[in-house]
Design goal:
Elements lengths: L8 E7 L1 E5 L6 H13 L4 E4 L10 H10 L8 H7 L12 H16 L3 H7 L5 E6 L2 E5 L18 H11 L3 E4 L6 E6 L2 E5 L14 E9 L2 E9 L3 H10 L4 H9 L11 H5 L4
Parallel strand pairs: 1-4, 2-3, 5-6, 6-8
Antiparallel strand pairs: 2-9, 4-5, 7-8, 9-10
């Protein structure tokens, strides 16, 4: 696979229409709604792209939902860290304040995730491959190069996308990690889809969250971002009961990020409140 580091890659099969769940961040209420919504859309399969814990309350509830629904999943940086008993989430932040909140989130998740679930996380592959018709699709968490790399719309150039596709010998790269959904095609059935996150709003002042579907239709790839409504007030109340940072709760209630802002490029940050 070119000059990329070797990794465990799961062969997932061939499909016509699939759904992808990005970072769940312990938002078990949104995950339950998303599973129901994906089933209503009659997708052939649903895949989870990692970061099941973090940010929200009761991390075991999300993992149990995923496992009970038999949703195939790959590791995010949280699963990699939790399963290896790491002391940090390796989220990829560089700002001290962002890292402080990340540590609070990771410590809570680590303390409240059952050993059985951590062991299961260690069995997950780092990447996955599937076919949508004749189109090759590579699933990863951050990027094919690094599990915690942030691929933002404003800073991911067409030339860089083309290089990743060549290096990975694929047509479509599907990722998450940033928390904000976007896609860009660089040719017929070639490009990147960042599916966003189920765990928290997309810093747009709206309380719903998102997942993505991709299908092959009339010889081309069609991506749709699907909004997911859920009882965000109930989640906020659970977070308060668990004494999670009030900044996290404010994001759930307002739809605007209050943490992890320094990692945002200028254009993505300008779209938010701060």
């Amino acid at each position: 696979m070119s000059n990329l580091e070797p990794t465990r890659v799961l062969d997932l099969g061939s499909f016509k229409r699939v759904a992808f769940f990005g970072g769940i961040y312990s938002n078990h209420l949104a995950l339950r709604s998303a599973i129901d919504r994906a089933q209503a859309l009659n997708v052939d399969a649903t895949f989870a792209l990692g970061d099941f814990g973090a940010f929200g309350p009761h991390p075991d509830r999300s993992v149990e939902l995923l496992r009970d629904a038999a949703i195939p999943a790959i590791q995010g940086n949280y699963e990699e860290s939790l399963s290896s008993q790491a002391l940090h989430c390796h989220c990829g932040y560089t700002d001290p304040q962002d890292n402080r909140f990340a540590q609070l989130s990771y410590d809570y998740t680590r303390e409240n995730t059952a050993p059985e679930h951590k062991a299961w996380m260690g069995t997950l592959s780092l990447q996955g491959r599937l076919m949508l018709g004749t189109t090759r699709v590579l699933l990863c968490h951050g990027s094919p190069r690094r599990i915690n790399e942030f691929l933002w719309r404003s800073t991911t150039s067409t030339a860089f996308i083309e290089k990743l596709l060549r290096d990975c010998e694929t047509d479509i790269i599907v990722c998450t990690h940033t928390g904000i959904h976007w896609s860009r095609m660089v040719g017929p059935s070639r490009g990147i889809v960042n599916v966003g996150a189920l765990g928290r709003p997309a810093n747009d002042g709206k309380t719903h969250v998102w997942f993505a579907t991709i299908e092959q239709a009339q010889g081309d790839m069609v991506t749709a971002f699907v909004p997911v409504e859920y009882n965000h007030e109930a989640l906020a109340a659970e977070m308060e009961s668990e004494r999670l940072p009030p900044e996290f709760v404010e994001t759930i209630r307002t739809g605007y990020w209050t943490t992890c802002l320094e990692i945002l490029p200028a254009k993505e940050r300008a779209a938010g409140k701060w």
